[in-house]
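Example 3.2
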Amino acid sequence: MSTCVSDCYRHQAARKAAEQGGASAQLNLGALYYNGQGVPQKLVLAYTMFNLSASQGNDKAVKNRDQLRPKLSSRQVQEGQRLAAEWQPGRPLTTKSTTGK
């Protein structure tokens, strides 16, 4: 399987599990957004996913979120926090950021 197809499949699988509230899946989806694997790189959405996972006690997500924060503007951090706060398990996760990458 080519890397693109594999990454796209990983993104779809992680998204489905993340939408159900899985902390590990949210961490994995955040990493895919951070690295641009299977999706365009979107740091705000990576921050959002790390924040959701961190809120469930995932220590690696806390570390990833805290390491990503300095790379974002305060507006981007606020957007990531807002997106995480508005999301409800079982609802689709956003794929768009209004503040850019």
